[in-house]
Amino acid sequence: MQMHTRFGGLLSLVLLAGCATPVGPLAPPPVPDNPATAATVSVYRDAAAVDGVRMVFTINGAATYQLLPGDRYDFALGAGSYELGYRMGMSTCSDPVQIDPGGHYVFKLAPDCAIILESQ
Question: Which of 8, 9, 57, 87 is deepest in the core (most CB within 10 A)?
């Protein structure tokens, strides 16, 4: 019985810590080699989602930013190939993208693993 109580207490702490994790930056995006030719990139989470679950945006598999529905994240990337994605709940999604020098990109992160290039 005591082991069950310890497990329940540990589970409660883990759940509480997950709820207390801040929304926003987790790690910086890759630094452009030449800031003068870097592209500007914006990603935003579809505001239609009403689940309140945090979405973790990833670049090349690395957790970069946490978003709630309607949140937006703006950053700069150097020209090159990247894997943009997100983790939410048990789902992990990603899509390869090509970033050109000096470009301006807007991606919508939507349910069902949709990473949609809206403008370039």
Answer: 57
